[in-house]
C-alpha cells in the first residue's frame, strides 16, 4: 500500500512540475518575440495587455495582436487634410476660372480695334494728341503711362483690366468720327535720318508721310501700310526711290497703283482708291497707300529717282 501511495504522489508531483514548465516557457516565448523584433512593438504591447498573467493561454497573445487597433490602423486611417487639399487645388484658388485684374489687355505691338478705342478715349481727355491708328506704339505707350501716373496706378505703359476700367469710367463711347477722323493725321517728330537732303519721311506710328527737303516739311499726307507681323508688312529702314510710274497696275493683285514711287523690292508709295473709300478699315499689300490723290500727284512730280525714303516707327 505504501508503495502504491508513493507512486501516486510521485505521479502528481511530476504532473505539477510539467505544468509549471509549460507556463514558464509560454511567458519567455512572448517576451522573446518582442525582443527579437520579429513582431512590431505594438503587437508585443497588445499581447501584454490582453494576457497580463503568465498563466494566460498560449494562443492569447497572437489572437490579441490580430485584433488590436494598432494592427489595423494603417489600412483604415483617414486621409490627412493636406492630402485632401493636394487632390483638389482648384477648389480653393478663389479665381473661378476668371482672368485676374492684372491681365494685360493691350501693349506695344497690339493692333486691334480696342486699341483704336483706347486712343480715342485717351484723346478725349487730352492724353493722345493725334488721330487713332489702332496700332499700339511708343506714343500710345507714353500716353497710357501719363494717364496711369496721374491716376495713381502702376506706371507700366501697358493696359491691364484696372487701367482700362478707370479709363472707361472717365470717358464716353467714341463716335465714328472720333475713331476714324476725316482730317489729316498730325505728323510725328521726324526721324533724324529725315533731317538732311530730299526725303520721303514715313512714320508708321502716326501713319503719315512727310515730303521733306533739308529738314523742312514741304507736304504731308495720311498713309496706311501692310499688316504688321505678316509677310505683307511694309518694310522699315532707309531706302532710295529706284523707279517712278505715273500709271501702274499691280502684276500680282491686278489693282491700279497711280503715282507709284518704288523703293523696296516692289513696295511703293502710291495712291489707293480703296484707302480713299474705306480709310483705315483696310490695309495695303505692303505698299505705302496714300488717299489724297492731288497731294501725291504734286509730290510725284517733285521727287527724283535716287531720293531717300525712310520708314520708321
Total DSSP E strands:
11
- Going by helix content, strand content and strand pairing, the class is alpha+beta
If helices are DSSP runs of H or I spanning 4 or more residues, what is the number of helices? Answer: 11
Strand content: 15-25%
Query: Oligomeric state of the chains?
Result: single chain
Low-confidence region ranges: 16-100
* Overall morphology: elongated
Mean pLDDT: 76
Please give the largest β-sheet.
9 strands, mixed
The rounded distance between the terminal residues' Cα atoms is: 135 Å
Identify the strand order in the major beta sheet.
Answer: 6-11-3-4-5-10-9-8-7
Radius of gyration: 46 Å
Outline:
With 313 residues, the chain is α+β, with helices and mostly antiparallel strands. Helix content is 39%, strand content 16%. The protein has helices spanning 2-36, 41-50, 60-67, 69-76, 81-87, 113-124, 138-150, 161-170, 176-179, 273-278, 293-302, and strands at 104-106, 159-160, 198-203, 208-213, 216-224, 237-240, 243-245, 260-264, 267-271, 288-290, 308-312.
Folded structure, characterized:
The protein is of the alpha+beta class. 39% of the residues lie in helices and 16% in strands. The chain has 11 helices and 11 strands. It has helices spanning 2-36, 41-50, 60-67, 69-76, 81-87, 113-124, 138-150, 161-170, 176-179, 273-278, 293-302, and strands at residues 104-106, 159-160, 198-203, 208-213, 216-224, 237-240, 243-245, 260-264, 267-271, 288-290, 308-312. Strand 4 (208-213) and strand 5 form a beta hairpin. Helix 2 crosses helix 3 (60-67). It is elongated, with a radius of gyration of 46 Å.
Amino acid at each position: 500500500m505504501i508503495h502504491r501511495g508513493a507512486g501516486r504522489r510521485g505521479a502528481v508531483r511530476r504532473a505539477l512540475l510539467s505544468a509549471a514548465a509549460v507556463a514558464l516557457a509560454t511567458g519567455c516565448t512572448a517576451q522573446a518575440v518582442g525582443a527579437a523584433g520579429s513582431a512590431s512593438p505594438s503587437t508585443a504591447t497588445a499581447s501584454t495587455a490582453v494576457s497580463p498573467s503568465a498563466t494566460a493561454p498560449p494562443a492569447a497573445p497572437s489572437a490579441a495582436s490580430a485584433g488590436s487597433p494598432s494592427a489595423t490602423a494603417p489600412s483604415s486611417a483617414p486621409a490627412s487634410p493636406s492630402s485632401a487639399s493636394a487632390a483638389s487645388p482648384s477648389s480653393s484658388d478663389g479665381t473661378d476660372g476668371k482672368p485676374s485684374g492684372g491681365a494685360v489687355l493691350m501693349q506695344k505691338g497690339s493692333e486691334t480695334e480696342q486699341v483704336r478705342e483706347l486712343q480715342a478715349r485717351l484723346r478725349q481727355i487730352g492724353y493722345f494728341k493725334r488721330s487713332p491708328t489702332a496700332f499700339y506704339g511708343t506714343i500710345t505707350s507714353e500716353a497710357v503711362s501719363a494717364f496711369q501716373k496721374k491716376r495713381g496706378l502702376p506706371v507700366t505703359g501697358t493696359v491691364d483690366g484696372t487701367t482700362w476700367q478707370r479709363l472707361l469710367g472717365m470717358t464716353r463711347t467714341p463716335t465714328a468720327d472720333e475713331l476714324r477722323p476725316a482730317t489729316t493725321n498730325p505728323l510725328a517728330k521726324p526721324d533724324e535720318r529725315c533731317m538732311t537732303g530730299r526725303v520721303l519721311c514715313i512714320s508708321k506710328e502716326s501713319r503719315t508721310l512727310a515730303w521733306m527737303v533739308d529738314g523742312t516739311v514741304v507736304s504731308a499726307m495720311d498713309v496706311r501700310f501692310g499688316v504688321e507681323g505678316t509677310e505683307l508688312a511694309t518694310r522699315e529702314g532707309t531706302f532710295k526711290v529706284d523707279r517712278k510710274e505715273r500709271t501702274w497696275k499691280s502684276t500680282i493683285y491686278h489693282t491700279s497703283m497711280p503715282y507709284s514711287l518704288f523703293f523696296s523690292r516692289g513696295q511703293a508709295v502710291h495712291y489707293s482708291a480703296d484707302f480713299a473709300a474705306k480709310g483705315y478699315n483696310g490695309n495695303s499689300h505692303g505698299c505705302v497707300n496714300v488717299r489724297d490723290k492731288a497731294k501725291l500727284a504734286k509730290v510725284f512730280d517733285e521727287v527724283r529717282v535716287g531720293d531717300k525714303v525712310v520708314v520708321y516707327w
